[in-house]
Amino acid sequence: MLMKQLSVFLKNNQGTLADLVCLLGRNGIGLEAAVLADTSRYGVFRAIVTDSEKALRLLQDNNYSACLTDVLCVRMPDAADGAGQVLTALNEDNTDIEYLYVLKRGGENALVLGVLDPERSARLLSDKGFQCLSKKNG
Q: Using CA atoms, how far apart are residues 92 and 57, in angstroms rounded to an integer?
């Protein structure tokens, strides 16, 4: 019930992000969702991509510092407070959220969440009636 997230450590230089995204695209790897967190010198690019294993090999072969991590991806209820419902359920269980971003697929929205124990959080949310996505069912 988890997804693989590609994380890439980047220097905060003009054109670095464009170079990365273009390299992925030229090799047939699409972005499904992405977020960039940066400081004045460095950034971390996190993304759900169409082929995470291929992306990791490609980036490592091109001297990028990259890794794959498991993240929780949960379909948001179709309501104005859909994200709030998911976050409230996690908060009630004292789950710390390191980061989040939105994945849009087929007219539906899902939250991608970085949490300490994504498997545990997925079970918790499933038990509360939320649908957790993976590459297989997403």
A: 39
